[in-house]
């Protein structure tokens, strides 16, 4: 492959995906009880056990610019680099990766390297990388790939349905007033990645069953034809719930491929257990 794809710990790529796509993953960090844990050093189950024994709420942070630089610098010079970063709206990871890119270009100004602000995470990054792999196979060069990815990011829809808003509120990713109102009135919130890649309320629905139904219906509101499309859906310790939703999606739509994966501990901290996140490309651009 003439292009080296790289991502970070917010992507939730499985080990098999990393192997098949030859992707390098730069871990992000989880902090709990004065311990710093790399996102790829602990499983979701083991981390859940750690948090159950702790009175503290875990926090997350990006790798430092030099950590990104060290990974970029090791890629052979003849290979272009495309790094898919978790959204700039929820993490400093993108800014640190850009700093590392600039460090690399100072020493090796002839390098082809680009940092992609995916404006998403988890399922959204998996979908973008899957489509990029296909285009590399089709023979697109570095600059053609960047043009393609830029367009796909504008069409990318990332929609969330969570069992509870507690973790999202505690981590500061969702307004506390909205979360309190939702919990008080038994209102379930459908969430999405906004134009700035932040998490915003998409729709308020009363009751879990109706919220799940609306979650599936949202696909049809954004996408008129699914037969030639892919959908990626990830879950946080919610395999049974995921399977039920996938069944509903298959009954209603004709996606040519549905990719499923489990969230890593980093995203699970914010989304909470039994969260489901799906990503697909909508007909209309999400932003200009």
TrEMBL record:
InterPro entries: DegV, DegV_C, DegV_domain_contain. Pfam families: DegV. Keywords: Lipid-binding. PROSITE patterns: DEGV (PS51482). Transmembrane segments: none annotated. This is DegV family protein. It comes from Amphibacillus indicireducens.
């Amino acid at each position: 492959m003439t292009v080296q794809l790289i991502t970070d710990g917010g992507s939730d790529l499985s080990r098999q995906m990393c192997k098949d796509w030859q992707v390098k993953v730069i871990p992000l960090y989880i902090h709990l009880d004065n311990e710093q844990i790399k996102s790829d050093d602990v499983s979701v189950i083991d981390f859940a056990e750690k948090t159950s024994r702790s009175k503290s709420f875990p926090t997350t942070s990006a790798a430092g610019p030099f950590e990104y630089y060290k990974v970029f610098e090791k890629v052979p010079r003849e290979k272009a680099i495309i790094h898919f970063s978790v959204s700039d709206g929820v993490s400093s990871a993108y800014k640190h990766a850009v700093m590392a890119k600039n460090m690399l270009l100072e020493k090796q100004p002839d390098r082809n390297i680009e940092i992609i602000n995916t404006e998403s995470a988890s399922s959204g990054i998996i979908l973008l990388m899957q489509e990029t792999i296909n285009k590399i196979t089709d023979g697109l060069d570095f600059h053609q790939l960047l043009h393609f990815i830029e367009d796909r990011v504008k069409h990318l829809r990332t929609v969330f349905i969570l069992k509870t808003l507690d973790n999202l509120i505690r981590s500061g990713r969702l307004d506390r007033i909205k979360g309190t109102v939702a919990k008080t009135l038994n209102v379930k919130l459908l969430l999405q990645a906004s134009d700035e890649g932040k998490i915003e309320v998409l729709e308020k629905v009363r009751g879990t069953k109706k919220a799940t139904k609306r979650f599936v219906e949202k696909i049809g509101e954004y996408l008129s034809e699914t037969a030639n499309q892919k959908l990626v859906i990830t879950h946080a310790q919610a395999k049974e719930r995921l399977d039920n939703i996938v069944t509903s999606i298959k009954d209603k739509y004709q996606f040519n491929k549905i990719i499923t994966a489990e969230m890593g501990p980093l995203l699970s901290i914010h989304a909470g257990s039994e969260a489901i996140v799906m990503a697909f490309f909508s007909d209309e651009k999400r932003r200009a």
